[in-house]
Protein backbone atom coordinates (compact mmCIF):
# COMPACT_ATOMS: atom_id res chain seq x y z
CA UNK A 1 0.00 0.00 0.00
CA UNK A 2 2.75 2.41 0.99
CA UNK A 3 4.81 1.30 -2.01
CA UNK A 4 1.93 2.12 -4.36
CA UNK A 5 1.46 5.51 -2.76
CA UNK A 6 5.15 6.28 -3.18
CA UNK A 7 4.94 5.32 -6.85
CA UNK A 8 1.91 7.56 -7.31
CA UNK A 9 3.70 10.50 -5.68
CA UNK A 10 6.79 9.89 -7.79
CA UNK A 11 4.66 9.80 -10.94
CA UNK A 12 2.94 13.06 -9.97
CA UNK A 13 6.30 14.71 -9.36
CA UNK A 14 7.57 13.52 -12.73
CA UNK A 15 4.45 14.82 -14.49
CA UNK A 16 4.77 18.16 -12.73
CA UNK A 17 8.41 18.45 -13.77
CA UNK A 18 7.57 17.51 -17.36
CA UNK A 19 4.85 20.17 -17.46
CA UNK A 20 7.30 22.75 -16.11
CA UNK A 21 9.80 21.75 -18.79
CA UNK A 22 7.15 21.99 -21.49
CA UNK A 23 6.09 25.43 -20.28
CA UNK A 24 9.70 26.51 -20.22
CA UNK A 25 10.24 25.23 -23.75
CA UNK A 26 7.07 27.02 -24.92
CA UNK A 27 8.24 30.31 -23.39
CA UNK A 28 11.70 29.87 -24.91
CA UNK A 29 10.21 29.09 -28.33
CA UNK A 30 7.84 32.05 -28.05
CA UNK A 31 10.66 34.43 -27.17
CA UNK A 32 12.74 33.05 -30.03
CA UNK A 33 9.85 33.43 -32.48
CA UNK A 34 9.15 36.98 -31.27
CA UNK A 35 12.84 37.87 -31.60
CA UNK A 36 13.02 36.36 -35.09
CA UNK A 37 9.86 38.22 -36.16
CA UNK A 38 11.32 41.45 -34.81
CA UNK A 39 14.60 40.91 -36.67
CA UNK A 40 12.70 40.05 -39.86
CA UNK A 41 10.45 43.13 -39.54
CA UNK A 42 13.48 45.35 -38.96
CA UNK A 43 15.23 43.84 -41.98
CA UNK A 44 12.14 44.41 -44.16
CA UNK A 45 11.81 47.99 -42.89
CA UNK A 46 15.48 48.69 -43.64
CA UNK A 47 15.08 47.20 -47.11
CA UNK A 48 12.07 49.44 -47.79
CA UNK A 49 13.64 52.68 -46.56
CA UNK A 50 17.13 52.10 -47.95
CA UNK A 51 17.95 54.52 -50.80
CA UNK A 52 18.96 51.57 -52.98
CA UNK A 53 15.98 49.40 -52.11
CA UNK A 54 15.12 46.85 -54.81
CA UNK A 55 11.39 47.32 -54.10
CA UNK A 56 9.75 49.36 -56.90
CA UNK A 57 8.37 52.67 -55.66
CA UNK A 58 4.77 51.82 -56.56
CA UNK A 59 5.01 48.64 -54.45
CA UNK A 60 6.79 50.28 -51.53
CA UNK A 61 4.41 51.35 -48.72
CA UNK A 62 7.11 53.64 -47.32
CA UNK A 63 7.18 55.70 -50.52
CA UNK A 64 4.50 58.38 -51.10
CA UNK A 65 2.06 58.37 -53.99
CA UNK A 66 3.41 59.48 -57.35
CA UNK A 67 0.62 60.14 -59.83
CA UNK A 68 2.49 58.74 -62.84
CA UNK A 69 3.47 55.47 -61.14
CA UNK A 70 1.84 52.25 -62.38
CA UNK A 71 -1.27 51.26 -60.44
CA UNK A 72 -0.82 48.49 -57.85
CA UNK A 73 -2.94 47.17 -54.96
CA UNK A 74 -1.20 49.81 -52.79
CA UNK A 75 -2.23 52.76 -54.96
CA UNK A 76 -5.66 53.37 -53.42
CA UNK A 77 -4.17 53.23 -49.91
CA UNK A 78 -1.45 55.69 -50.90
CA UNK A 79 -4.06 57.95 -52.52
CA UNK A 80 -6.21 58.02 -49.40
CA UNK A 81 -3.17 58.77 -47.25
CA UNK A 82 -2.07 61.63 -49.51
CA UNK A 83 -5.59 63.08 -49.72
CA UNK A 84 -5.90 63.09 -45.92
CA UNK A 85 -2.98 65.54 -45.53
CA UNK A 86 -3.20 68.96 -47.16
CA UNK A 87 0.58 69.38 -47.32
CA UNK A 88 1.14 65.91 -48.75
CA UNK A 89 -1.72 66.35 -51.18
CA UNK A 90 -0.32 69.60 -52.53
CA UNK A 91 3.17 68.10 -52.72
CA UNK A 92 1.85 65.11 -54.68
CA UNK A 93 0.13 67.40 -57.18
CA UNK A 94 3.18 69.58 -57.78
CA UNK A 95 4.30 69.07 -61.36
CA UNK A 96 1.12 67.12 -62.13
CA UNK A 97 -1.49 69.85 -61.82
CA UNK A 98 -1.95 73.58 -62.03
CA UNK A 99 -3.00 74.44 -58.49
CA UNK A 100 -2.65 77.17 -55.91
CA UNK A 101 -3.25 76.63 -52.22
CA UNK A 102 -5.80 78.94 -50.61
CA UNK A 103 -6.85 79.78 -47.07
CA UNK A 104 -9.79 77.68 -45.84
CA UNK A 105 -13.24 79.08 -46.57
CA UNK A 106 -15.76 78.97 -43.71
CA UNK A 107 -19.08 80.31 -44.94
CA UNK A 108 -21.17 78.60 -42.25
CA UNK A 109 -21.25 75.49 -40.09
CA UNK A 110 -22.57 73.55 -43.10
CA UNK A 111 -20.77 75.27 -45.95
CA UNK A 112 -16.99 75.45 -46.13
CA UNK A 113 -13.90 74.43 -48.07
CA UNK A 114 -11.11 72.96 -46.00
CA UNK A 115 -7.84 72.01 -47.72
CA UNK A 116 -8.86 74.60 -50.30
CA UNK A 117 -7.09 74.92 -53.63
CA UNK A 118 -7.65 76.72 -56.90
CA UNK A 119 -7.38 74.18 -59.72
CA UNK A 120 -6.80 75.00 -63.41
CA UNK A 121 -5.47 71.77 -64.84
CA UNK A 122 -4.45 68.16 -64.20
CA UNK A 123 -1.82 66.34 -66.23
CA UNK A 124 -2.14 67.57 -69.81
CA UNK A 125 -5.81 68.56 -69.46
CA UNK A 126 -6.89 72.11 -68.66
CA UNK A 127 -9.89 73.11 -66.56
CA UNK A 128 -11.51 76.48 -66.19
CA UNK A 129 -10.48 77.83 -62.80
CA UNK A 130 -12.30 76.05 -59.97
CA UNK A 131 -12.12 76.15 -56.19
CA UNK A 132 -12.27 72.74 -54.57
CA UNK A 133 -10.67 70.55 -51.92
CA UNK A 134 -7.18 69.26 -52.58
CA UNK A 135 -8.39 65.67 -52.29
CA UNK A 136 -10.84 66.20 -55.17
CA UNK A 137 -8.07 67.74 -57.25
CA UNK A 138 -5.79 64.78 -56.49
CA UNK A 139 -8.44 62.22 -57.42
CA UNK A 140 -9.15 64.15 -60.62
CA UNK A 141 -5.45 64.02 -61.47
CA UNK A 142 -5.37 60.24 -60.92
CA UNK A 143 -8.49 59.88 -63.09
CA UNK A 144 -6.95 61.94 -65.90
CA UNK A 145 -3.67 60.00 -65.81
CA UNK A 146 -4.91 56.45 -65.45
CA UNK A 147 -8.43 56.50 -66.92
CA UNK A 148 -9.22 59.43 -69.22
CA UNK A 149 -6.06 59.52 -71.32
CA UNK A 150 -5.91 55.73 -71.89
CA UNK A 151 -9.64 55.66 -72.78
CA UNK A 152 -9.31 58.60 -75.17
CA UNK A 153 -6.37 56.93 -76.91
CA UNK A 154 -8.24 53.62 -77.17
CA UNK A 155 -11.63 54.81 -78.37
CA UNK A 156 -10.89 58.16 -80.03
CA UNK A 157 -7.24 58.05 -81.04
CA UNK A 158 -6.50 61.39 -79.38
CA UNK A 159 -5.64 62.84 -76.00
CA UNK A 160 -7.83 64.81 -73.61
CA UNK A 161 -6.78 68.46 -73.59
CA UNK A 162 -9.69 69.90 -71.59
CA UNK A 163 -12.06 68.74 -68.86
CA UNK A 164 -15.32 70.72 -68.75
CA UNK A 165 -17.10 71.18 -65.42
CA UNK A 166 -19.92 73.10 -63.76
CA UNK A 167 -18.23 73.57 -60.42
CA UNK A 168 -17.35 71.96 -57.12
CA UNK A 169 -18.30 74.23 -54.20
CA UNK A 170 -21.96 75.16 -53.90
CA UNK A 171 -23.63 75.87 -50.56
CA UNK A 172 -26.89 74.02 -51.17
CA UNK A 173 -28.99 71.06 -50.12
CA UNK A 174 -28.91 67.76 -51.99
CA UNK A 175 -31.15 67.51 -55.04
CA UNK A 176 -33.24 64.39 -55.57
CA UNK A 177 -35.65 63.15 -58.22
CA UNK A 178 -38.51 63.73 -55.80
CA UNK A 179 -37.52 67.30 -54.97
CA UNK A 180 -35.33 69.18 -52.47
CA UNK A 181 -33.70 67.24 -49.64
CA UNK A 182 -33.05 68.27 -46.05
CA UNK A 183 -29.52 66.90 -46.31
CA UNK A 184 -26.69 69.12 -47.45
CA UNK A 185 -24.97 68.24 -50.69
CA UNK A 186 -21.32 67.22 -50.68
CA UNK A 187 -20.88 70.27 -52.92
CA UNK A 188 -21.48 72.34 -49.77
CA UNK A 189 -18.05 71.20 -48.55
CA UNK A 190 -16.43 70.99 -52.03
CA UNK A 191 -16.13 67.22 -51.72
CA UNK A 192 -17.47 66.72 -55.25
CA UNK A 193 -16.97 68.00 -58.77
CA UNK A 194 -19.45 67.89 -61.68
CA UNK A 195 -18.00 67.08 -65.11
CA UNK A 196 -20.00 67.90 -68.25
CA UNK A 197 -17.66 66.91 -71.06
CA UNK A 198 -14.22 66.92 -72.61
CA UNK A 199 -12.21 68.55 -75.34
CA UNK A 200 -9.64 66.53 -77.29
CA UNK A 201 -6.34 67.69 -78.71
CA UNK A 202 -7.65 67.18 -82.27
CA UNK A 203 -10.54 69.57 -81.65
CA UNK A 204 -13.21 66.96 -80.95
CA UNK A 205 -15.86 68.05 -78.44
CA UNK A 206 -17.62 65.51 -76.22
CA UNK A 207 -20.66 66.35 -74.10
CA UNK A 208 -22.49 63.95 -71.83
CA UNK A 209 -25.87 65.39 -72.74
CA UNK A 210 -25.30 64.84 -76.48
CA UNK A 211 -22.99 61.84 -76.60
CA UNK A 212 -23.97 59.50 -73.76
CA UNK A 213 -26.76 57.55 -75.46
CA UNK A 214 -25.70 57.14 -79.10
CA UNK A 215 -23.65 54.04 -79.88
CA UNK A 216 -20.18 54.90 -81.09
CA UNK A 217 -16.66 55.82 -80.00
CA UNK A 218 -17.73 58.90 -78.03
CA UNK A 219 -20.27 56.92 -76.01
CA UNK A 220 -17.70 54.16 -75.43
CA UNK A 221 -15.20 56.74 -74.22
CA UNK A 222 -17.73 58.30 -71.84
CA UNK A 223 -18.60 54.95 -70.30
CA UNK A 224 -14.92 54.12 -69.88
CA UNK A 225 -14.45 57.54 -68.28
CA UNK A 226 -17.32 56.82 -65.87
CA UNK A 227 -15.98 53.37 -65.01
CA UNK A 228 -12.51 54.81 -64.48
CA UNK A 229 -13.87 57.49 -62.15
CA UNK A 230 -15.36 54.74 -60.02
CA UNK A 231 -11.84 53.55 -59.26
CA UNK A 232 -10.65 56.92 -57.95
CA UNK A 233 -13.69 58.54 -56.34
CA UNK A 234 -15.81 57.44 -53.41
CA UNK A 235 -19.03 57.91 -55.38
CA UNK A 236 -19.62 58.29 -59.12
CA UNK A 237 -23.00 59.16 -60.62
CA UNK A 238 -23.63 59.33 -64.37
CA UNK A 239 -26.62 59.75 -66.70
CA UNK A 240 -27.44 56.10 -65.94
CA UNK A 241 -28.28 57.11 -62.36
CA UNK A 242 -31.18 59.54 -62.93
CA UNK A 243 -32.35 62.45 -65.07
CA UNK A 244 -30.69 64.98 -62.75
CA UNK A 245 -27.34 63.67 -63.99
CA UNK A 246 -28.22 63.56 -67.66
CA UNK A 247 -25.63 66.21 -68.47
CA UNK A 248 -22.81 65.49 -66.02
CA UNK A 249 -20.77 63.09 -63.92
CA UNK A 250 -21.02 63.72 -60.19
CA UNK A 251 -17.62 62.69 -58.80
CA UNK A 252 -17.43 62.64 -55.02
CA UNK A 253 -14.30 62.18 -52.94
CA UNK A 254 -16.12 60.54 -50.04
CA UNK A 255 -18.79 57.90 -50.25
CA UNK A 256 -19.57 54.20 -50.15
CA UNK A 257 -18.07 53.21 -53.49
CA UNK A 258 -21.27 53.65 -55.50
CA UNK A 259 -20.82 53.53 -59.27
CA UNK A 260 -23.92 54.30 -61.31
In which range does the helix fraction lie? 40-55%
Number of helices: 6
Number of strands: 13
Strand share of the residues?
A: 15-25%
The average pLDDT is: 89
Low-pLDDT ranges: 35-49
Strand/helix succession: HHHEEEEEHEEEEEHHEEE
N/C terminus separation: 85 Å
Radius of gyration from CA coordinates: 28 Å
Any idea what the shape is? elongated
Q: What's the main sheet like? A: 6 strands, mixed
Helices and strands: which structural class? Answer: alpha+beta
Task: Write up what this structure looks like.
The protein is an alpha+beta fold. Helices cover 42% and strands 24% of the residues. The chain is built from six helices and 13 strands. The chain has helices spanning 2-49, 75-83, 86-93, 134-156, 208-211, 217-232; strands spanning 97-101, 105-106, 112-113, 116-122, 125-133, 160-165, 173-176, 179-184, 192-200, 205-207, 235-237, 249-252, 258-259. The strands form four sheets. Strands 6, 9, 10, 11, 12 and 13 form a six-stranded mixed sheet that branches. Strands 1-4-5 form a three-stranded antiparallel sheet, with helices on one face. The longest helix has 48 residues, at 2-49. The chain is elongated, with a radius of gyration of 28 Å.
